[in-house]
Every structure is written in C-alpha cells, then in structure tokens.
Amino acid sequence: MSIPLPYAGYDKIGHLAQGFIPAMLFHELLLRSSPLKQGKLLFTLVMASCLAVSASYELTEWAAAEMMGEGADAFLGTQGYAWDTQSDMLMALIGAIVAQVVLGKVQDRQLIIT
Predict the structure, then answer these.
(1) 79 backbone φψ class: left, alpha, beta (φ>0; ψ -120 to 50)
(2) What is the pLDDT of residue 74?
(3) Where are the beta strands (DSSP E) in 15-100?
(4) Are residues 28 and 111 in contact, defined by beta-carbon separation less than 8 angstroms?
C-alpha cells in the first residue's frame, strides 16, 4: 500500500510547523525563565529544543511502526524514501530558524519580562 504523492507535501508542511510553533514557545519560555538575553546562544538553544521535539516525535513514530510490524511502511508514510526521517527533522529546523528570524523581534517587543 502506497500513500499518494500529495500527502508528502502535507507531511513536510506539518514538520515545518513542528519547528515553527515550538520555536516561539521555547523563545518566550527561555527569555522569561532564564537569565538568557536575545542573541546567538538563545537562538541556538531554541533551535536545539525544536530539534529535540522533532527527534522525539520521530523516535515515537519509529517505535509505533516497529510494534505494528508489516504495517510500518503505511504508518510511516515514507513512500520508499530512505531519508524521510532526516528530511522531516530538517523541515522542523528550517521552521525554527524561520520563526526566529521572521517573528523573533516582534515577539521580543510584545514580551514584558518582569
């Protein structure tokens, strides 16, 4: 059973959001609850946190597929693409970078850090 090709695009959009949305959450959480200030370290830690979320999802997806046995290919939706997991994580990384570059300063202006 193969998954239709248009599904792959939606999968990548979902993984892009998997980096974009948590980036804004981690950005605010780290600014509010740590001594970190805006800069390279904060940017890097937000990216690493988003990659950790993505890796956790991919590991959970793999574990579920292993438990399913023969239905793993249909569940994973890799469409025979050996680098699906890595490309999913790359999309999450791109989402995290885009979120911080495009919305980071806007979010910082809206934050009132006490």
Answers:
(1) left
(2) 63
(3) none
(4) yes
Distance CA 32, CA 12 (A): 31
| pLDDT band at 1; cut points 50, 70, 90 | very low
Residues 6 or more apart whose Cβ sits within 8 Å of residue 91:
12, 15, 16, 18, 19
- Distance CA(29)–CA(21), nearest Å, equals 13
Q: Pick from 112, 89, 107: which is nearest to 42 by CA?
A: 107
Give the residue carrying structure tokens 């609850």: 33
pLDDT score of 80: 61
Take residue 25 and report the two structure tokens written for it. Answer: 């959450």
User: How far is it, in rounded angstroms, from Cα 23 to Cα 100?
Assistant: 7
